Structures are given as structure tokens and as C-alpha cells.
Amino acid sequence: MNAHPGLSADESKVVDAVEKRLYVGGQWVDASGGSTFDVLDPATGERLCSVADASPADGRAALDAAVAAQPAFAKRSPRERADLLTKAYELLLERVDDLALLMTLEMGKPLAEARGEIAYAAEFFRHFAGEAVRIDGGYQTAPAGNARFLTAKQPVGPCLLITPWNFPMAMGTRKLGPAIAAGCTSVIKPAHQTPLSMLALMDILAEAGVPAGAVNCVTAMDAGGVMEPLIRSGLARKLSFTGSTRVGRMLLEQCAEKVLRTSLELGGNAPFIVFEDADLDEAVDGAIAAKMRNMGEACTAANRLFVHSSTIDEFGRRLAEKMSALTVGRGTEPGVKVGPLIDEAGLEKVQSLVADAVERGATVLTGGEAAAGNGYFYPPTVLTGVPRDAAMADQEIFGPVAPLTPFDSEEEVVAAANDTEWGLVAYVFTNDLRRALRVAESLETGMVGLNQGIVSNPAAPFGGVKQSGLGREGGALGIDEYLETKYIGIAMP
Ligand code: NAP
């Protein structure tokens, strides 16, 4: 008999195959008292399965395991750590079909996007396998000539890693890759909506040879109750968090008590700017990529589309035509391009932001109305004439809604784009090289996509300025977040 009503045999199989307990010290263990919480399928709102609900004591046991494993793990050679990551990279790709299906079931994104995320996630391991063997130091003569300065890089120590639900695998490997490469042990806590991908990764890491205690995973409903004591314990040396700016601010305060190294990848409010000289087809395709990846549930999602007033009508017509042709449905079904939003709260937020914009005078070019029925589906929506004081101009929409606002001058649009507390990414479409560089330099963001709607790449430094975060993940800088620099002075009289 199928243990999961509503799931196919293949779907039930991948859900059943995942260990649903806590991964601590290389063992799968139940949460204290056997507590569990439910994981739901956002396409139906139905329960998929239950996973262990860690208590603060369970969290502490995981951190103790990471602390105990730290000295020996730091002594593993860079080549050994690189080999662990390479093996894990290969296993992720070997199992892409099952892992993608699992991700679609817990998160909702279409299967093709889930497969893309597994490949992207695996790429962080490949990238950091290369970085592990390139950790370098320095040798310098003191200015007075009477000493030598050696600089060495050492692992920061045990890390706490907290990830969001929107990229359930890649946000984990983006942290675990550099942590393992640097020789840091860790406790990772995925979001309660999407714990299964990270639990599946634990088996892969064990199979790849990651030693017991070097990576631990706790799943919990009360994230704050479990993580705050760990942050304040002084046993961990670093926190790396990806999630909302609201929670990131709170965690930064908690980290202050023991002065933890802190990396924060927070929310965004990306401007997407189309100048009058842009290639319009390229800009429309870029807007679809920047808006519709992950159903708009991405920190990098184009949140405010500024289009020159001479082309906004034509741009809006072409964008609405392409957006309305995208098939909405359960992510497991063939041809589906737009899956459900993560949960009821996510759907309600999108609905209220659209209602607010329309009330303030925006016009709906396509979409704008959630379909009745189960699951948290919202149709691809284009709004034009969205005033700059609409609520969605100042909040992450986190849904498939593209709000268009006209502008007339470069100066005006740069000022409008920068008029936000966030600064993660901006997109600029223009064929004028000087303008492209001028605008890219003036935008207060950590990343800029020039004539392209996707910037994420494991080999590039991902991160934001202002209230979008601290630090960079990926690229050559990514590993530095997990390394301390030690200076050794040698007298040479
Ligand atoms: P969230 O509510 O901030 O949650 C993120 C993670 O923090 C989850 O694991 C959550 O656990 C945990 N958490 C919540 N409250 C906590 C607390 N008091 N102490 C410790 N941990 C706590 O964000 P989300 O809704 O999952 O994710 C969406 C946000 O992430 C958006 O703002 C998006 O822009 C941002 N994001 C940023 C990036 C980037 O690289 N800049 C990438 C992806 C997403 P539970 O869910 O189990 O409560």
C-alpha cells in the first residue's frame, strides 16, 4: 500500500528513503522525547512526512559533537578535505534525479529548477575542493629589516550554519563547502519547511567520508529556542546565516555577546533597470529569469522594474505575453514552469501586496488573481504604473509578480534604485557601455547583472551591502569567511 496518499510510488520512495532524525556525531538519533514536526507539500498543503523536532539539549549535543571533532578535522590535510568535497560533488550529481524530486516535493519548485539547484549546489563543493588546496600565507620583511612576518590561515573553529527554505540544498552547500575546505566543523539547521534536502545531504557527506562530528544537522520547529543558546554558548566561533533581514539583525545582536565571526546573506529588493537603448527582447528574457526563477521566491528576484517611459508600454506588453504563457502547477508535472508558493503566509503576502498596488493606481497586465483550490498557487503577474510608494516597492514580494514603474532620466532611476535599505543585487539593461559602467558603479549593491538576469555562480563572490548582509559566499573570497589570519613575528636582529 502507498504510505503517502496523493504521492506516486516514485515520490513516496524518495520521501521514505530520507533519514528523518537528527544527525549528531556521525549517528542518526531521535530528538529528546521522540518529538517530531510535519513537513508539508506546498502543492497540496498535505503532510509529506514528519522529522525530528530538536530540543535545546539536542542542539547542544550537536554543537558538542562539532567542538569535539574540531581539532582532528583541522589536522586533516587540505588534499583530504578537497577529496571529501570532490566525492560529495560526484554523489550529488549521481543522485540528481531523486534529490530533485525530493526538493520539489518539499519546496514546490518545478523539477527542472530543482535539478538545476542540485547541479548549482554540487558546484559549490567542486569549487571549494579547489580552494581547500590553495589556502595560502605570507612571508614579509619588517619595514625596519629586523624581523620577519609570517602569516598563516587557520580554521575559524566550530560553525553554526542556518539556511532558508527557498534553496534547500544550495544554501547549505554554499556554507558547508567552504567550512569543510577550511577545516571547520559545523552544525547546520535547515528551515522547518524544507529539512529533507539537508538530511539527504548528511548521508551523502557520510558516504563521501566526512568524519563523525565534522558536520551535524538539527531540524527544529523552534529555531530561536534551539539556536540562541548555541550562539551564546561561546563554544561556536562563527555563525553563517542566510534568511530574512529581520532574523539576521536579531542574530547579529546575539553574536555580539561572544563576538562570533558573522556572515549574513539577507533579503534583497533588487532594481531591474531597462534603458531606452536596451535590446528589448534581451531585457524581457532577463526580466523573466530575474523574476521567475524559484517562482520569484529568491533574494535576488527583480523586485522593482524601472523601465524608460518611452519603452514601458512595449516592454510591458511583451513581458505580459511571455509571463502569461508560463504553465502553473505542481512542480512534478511535465511542462510546469511555475510551482506553488511555499505556504499560506507567503501566498497571503503576495495577494495583499498586489491589492495594495492596484488600490494605489497600478494596472494589471496579466495575472493578479490566485486560482481557487488546494496548494499555494499564484499566477505570473505583471503590473504597470506601480507608484513608488506602493508597499511592494519597499518589501520583498517573494512571488511571481513583476511591478513596472516608468522613469525618464539616468539620474532619477539611480536615485530611485538606491532608495532602499537593501543592497543585494541590481540588473541593468543598456547597450551603452559608458552608461552601463557609470550606473553599475553608482548602484549601492553587492552585485550587478549587466544585460543578464542571473548573477549567481559558485565561482563569483555572492553577497550584499547595506541591510542585505555581511561577507561574501563563493568565489575566491568565500573561504576567507571560515579562516582566521595568524601573524607570527620572528626577530631577525
Ligand atoms: P527566515 O524566516 O529568516 O528563516 C531563515 C532561517 O532562519 C530558517 O532556517 C529559520 O528557521 C531560521 N530562523 C528563524 N528565526 C530564527 C531565530 N530566531 N533564530 C535562529 N534561526 C531562526 O527566512 P526565510 O523566510 O526562511 O527565507 C527567506 C529570506 O531569506 C528572504 O528574506 C530571502 O531574501 C532571504 N535569502 C537570502 C539569500 C541571500 O543569499 N542573500 C538567499 C536566499 C534567501 P525556521 O524556518 O525553521 O523557523
Automatic annotation (TrEMBL):
Gene3D superfamilies: Aldehyde Dehydrogenase, Chain A, domain 1, Aldehyde Dehydrogenase, Chain A, domain 2. Signal peptide: none annotated. PROSITE patterns: ALDEHYDE_DEHYDR_GLU. The active site is at E265. The keyword Oxidoreductase applies. Keywords: Oxidoreductase. InterPro entries: Ald_DH/histidinol_DH, Ald_DH_C, Ald_DH_CS_GLU, Ald_DH_N, Aldehyde_DH_dom, Aldehyde_DH_Superfamily. The keyword Oxidoreductase applies. One of its GO terms (biological process) is gamma-aminobutyric acid catabolic process. Residues 28-488 form the Aldehyde dehydrogenase domain. One of its GO terms (molecular function) is succinate-semialdehyde dehydrogenase (NAD+) activity. It holds the Pfam family Aldedh. CDD domains: ALDH_F5_SSADH_GabD (cd07103). It comes from the Bacteria. Belongs to the aldehyde dehydrogenase family. This is NAD-dependent succinate-semialdehyde dehydrogenase. It comes from Kribbella turkmenica.
